[in-house]
């Protein structure tokens, strides 16, 4: 049983009956689920993950104090703290009686402000361009079990709807970095005898290529340690994960360097094909740099289009 499954089972067994029994008037005003930081919010946790933050629990999201006052919130915190301390061999932490920052009773506005800097998910263009994707991922991952009030669901839907011009700006920047690091600087570093710098170029290429693939899938790349796992589950370009992993885990001597250059060009070709399929580029070549500027040319908002091409990366 992974963390999401444990959370739902714990809620159904203990949390939901407690809410129905002790807080019936509150039920129409809350959302319950598990989302935010931690591998369990993605369903990625395993046996090793149980060494920290693996415990039965869930999040109860409350609207503002004008809807649910402090006294009611405090009573709900106390009731949550009294729920059974263990389930299926997993025990709740004793250090935070209300469940801590990741679980327990949370104000919806405070949760989303902490994740993305906005209490209601309405972001300015600058916020869309500057926010790291892992933050947007943590605000939209996991599962909401119940949300009759719909506030949390509406905010999550708002955050999932990344403006197209923002997506294009991010794509243009990452595709340009792919060109600079992979198609240009990797080989030049090797010619200079700088194998360490060549590997840095490979790392930069792979990181930007991953970002580009997530953008082409219209989803957010999670925190780096879960990026490969998430990449392998994407509907588009997921098979590139094997090439990317090979690039960053192999050396740069002799035949290996030639093989890696071929891998870089193979990844570039697949990304270009997807850009063309999504009508994101008008360029007709294998040069990622030309495609990057073509993506930027397709941005409708002149203020975003005229920003430096790397403004969002």
Description:
This protein is an alpha+beta fold and 313 residues long. It folds into two domains: 3-160, 2-Layer Sandwich (Beta Polymerase, domain 2), CATH 3.30.460; 164-305. Helix content is 54%, strand content 6%. It contains 13 helices and six strands. The strands form two sheets. A four-stranded mixed sheet has the order 5-2-1-6, sandwiched between helices. A two-stranded antiparallel ribbon has the order 3-4. A hairpin with a 2-residue loop joins strand 3 (86-87) and strand 4 (90-91). The longest helix is centred in the middle third of the chain and has 28 residues, at 164-191. It is elongated, with a radius of gyration of 23 Å. The chain starts with a helix and ends in an 8-residue tail after the last helix. The relative contact order is 0.11.
